[in-house]
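Sample intake sheet
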Amino acid sequence: MTSTLLIVQIILAIAITITVLLQKSSSIGLGAYSGSNESVFGAKGPTGFLAKLTFTLAFAFIINTLALGYLYTAQNSSSVADTIVPKNNAAVPSAPVTPVMPKSSAPAAPSTPAKK
């Protein structure tokens, strides 16, 4: 499901880019010489149609982004840090272990002499 939404996200990003680039800029520039293209979209020109199309695509892009974020976090509840293994493949102990001292056969230390 997330791969399908990711493909839709890429397509929406490309479509938004194209519709923004098709719109007439505020400074006319070289667009003043190509007035015949405006009659394709009606009497008002492409501004109304392209503005509505840009808004619709942007709204779909935002909804798709939210859906991708929700599905990704619901799908991956574990962290990447949980799968890290130390380089020497040693397991990290959970608590320090106190060694049990065996009874030694060495003689006991001499005690201090009693005072007279």
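Comment: The chain has a mean pLDDT of 76. DSSP finds two helices and no strands in the chain.
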